[in-house]
What we know:
Blueprint: E1 4-7, E2 13-16, H1 22-28, H2 33-36, E3 39-42, E4 45-47, E5 58-62, H3 67-88, E6 93-94, E7 99-100, E8 103-109, H4 118-131, E9 136-142, H5 143-152, H6 156-168, H7 189-204, E10 214-220, E11 223-226, E12 240-250, E13 259-268, H8 271-286, H9 289-295, E14 299-300, E15 311-312, H10 314-333, E16 337-338, E17 344-346, H11 347-353, H12 355-358, E18 367-369, E19 372-376, H13 381-388, E20 400-409, E21 425-435, H14 437-457, E22 463-468, H15 478-494, E23 499-502, E24 512-518, E25 524-533, H16 536-540, E26 544-545, E27 551-552, E28 555-564, H17 565-576, E29 589-593, H18 599-611, E30 616-618, H19 625-634, E31 639-643, H20 645-650, E32 652-657, E33 662-667, H21 668-678
Parallel strand pairs: 1-5, 16-20, 22-23, 29-30, 29-31
Antiparallel strand pairs: 1-2, 3-4, 3-5, 6-8, 7-8, 8-13, 9-10, 10-11, 12-13, 14-15, 17-19, 18-19, 20-21, 21-28, 22-24, 24-25, 25-28, 26-27, 31-32, 32-33
Helix pairs in contact: 3-4, 5-6, 9-17, 14-15
The protein binds one RNA strand through strand 12, strand 13 and helix 19.
Amino acid sequence: MADAELLLADGRRARIPAGQPILAALQALGEAPVETAVAAAWNGQTLDFMTPVPSDASLTLVPPDSPDGLRVLRHSAAHLMAAAVQALSPAAKFAIGPAIEDGFYYDMELPRPLTPEDLPIIEAKMRELAAQRLLYQRRELEMSEALAWAREHRQDYKIEILETIRQYGTSRPEGRAPGTQGVPESRESAEHRALNAEAEVEELAGEVQVGTSTVSFYQTGTFTDLCRGPHVPDTSWLTAFRLTHIAGAYWRGDERRPMLQRIYGTAFPTQEALDRHLFNLEEARRRDHRRLGRELDLFSVADEVGGGLILWHPKGGMIRTLIEDFWRDEHLANGYDLVYTPHVGRAKLWQVSGHLEFYQDLMYPRMEGDGNDYYVKPMNCPFHIMIYQSKVRSYRDLPLRFAELGTVYRFERAGVLHGLLRVRGFTQDDAHIFCTPEQMDEEITRAVRFSLFFLRTFGFKDYEVYVATRPEKFVGEPGDWEVATEALKRAAGRAGQAYEVDAGGGAFYGPKIDIKVKDALGRPWQCTTVQFDFNLPERFGLAFVGEDNRQHRPFMVHRALLGSIERFLGVLIEHYGGAFPAWLAPVQARVLPVADRHHAYAASVVARLQEEHLRGEVDDRNEKIGFKIREAEVQKIPYILVVGDRETAAGTVSVRLRGGQDRGVMPLADFVHTLATENKPQAV
RNA sequence: GCUGGCGUAGCUCAGCAGGUAGAGCAGCUGAUUUGUAAUCAGCCGGUCGGGGGUUCGAUUCCCUCCGCCAGCUCCA
């Protein structure tokens, strides 16, 4: 047999004989695979180390900390966990257990519900099994044998998976449901779909090749699982793992099917990497906007008011005001008209818009008065359309850009509410652009650029941009879709952004571009969405009079840049960890008098700040200076001004920055100047 | 909405075999007049999420509702 070529981790190339396991070949070369690689790659395929070296192949190594390497580790860890669960609970029925971003999970049906106390027990069993160096032994079975195995072991879910593979080849058919129009408050829906589909492909695929009917199994000790692989050679390769939490999950993500128990865990190549990850999780908890919202007295939610309905406290209200003032200024400077619309509208409006037909589940229930039915608005668009329709529009009027910080209400299911990030009442920084087909291209480009300008100003440097294209069910002309989709792609390109195409991920009424920002911890959050709408102009019969004196249908674009102000603030709180830059800090400077006799001077310092429209306050409590400093630090106030005898006498302040840096003593006027300079939005 | 977990003072929690509740922080009062991340003392504060049941007796056991949390589903 012909040799294969292997590219080693250090860049050297080696010839290895075909036929023997890849691992053996590596060991013969004196390589230490655990540290440098966990699998091999050939032709874009990841191969187990136990796979025989293919002849005439050119192999590379898959490092343990690469995306593919981590997948191998985590998928193997998922099997190890399942093996541990099976050892502890032999009646367990296993569903799927894929590697996911940051870890893995396994869904299973167990005789009794798991509790958090079970996790350390399962983890201990995993360590015990890992120490036994159990092999991950692969074998191929005919479909009929595989089914016989699954039936014999009463693995009902595996039976179903095998049946699916037999029927469809690998994955389940994937469909998208139509809905209605408007600016969504959406978050990662495409991602979830993709994740689920991917997870299932990963697990389902006993890798049925066209024209064959075998599926692969992996056996680890006494645990056998239908699985495509690849895996590490044996359990001793898994050194750093941790089970993190448990949750319910519907079988195949279908709420009509049984709820399984899901155990989440994660695995890393090294203990240090695992520790770092766990530390990051801890950091994320420290930055949780719900926690910071209470600690910094920004907002609250009250049972008496209702879930998902936010009460903004003075400090949170201050931040919000600053954001909204900035937003309004910039919109006026960028050719938008500000409009205001009501919170409720008559049923007829929502019939015409189609919301009552497609969106009613998410609307607050009907209100009745004066013989008419009214609904609280879940979207602003119908109102903006009514403004458009308040008179005859000429091509000379276009483009029209109606912008509103419009508060909408959506009756989200109770279980989805989450702090500020998923609420029932929220304020969209909404705008609707009505333009001619010729203007559309430039309008989209402007909107995308405008959005990036906002995001940068609020400190976000990294984005993910998605262009979502026409789904199977759609309204409008395919030609219009084509033109609009191209405009979106061009706009992304012109803004200097790399983007991904979410094929078929558009709304039924038009294609869209979504921008997600990445926060300080690299987590993505959907904010901006720019969507074409080929539905509402039709439903409302929108028109403008063209140069030819004939009626034409305008293009309509929905766009929200920050998304929802509530969500954006939630993201912002976590992004800054509550330590807002000076221009956004609700309190920019806290003045700390050393003793009672300095109170008058401290008050005069605050008064001076207020004259300059800067935000200061005095801590005149009867406490020692160390205590007051600690409190100001905990409140994450950017500037701490200590004033004692010396400062009072000289008209100065002793400036301490948030975090402890000492700026020394300076004349009050100098400090005012410094802070005033900083008190402006600045793009990063 | 579904599965699981959890609801004890404003916050963080203890109270782990049923005998009507404790701590720290916060708040209030007093002493102290303080120089860069917690001064000391006293006091106030809870019908133990709501309702029902078992029991001589329930924060503790059971049922039910409400809310929160982790996920799932959803998020046009």
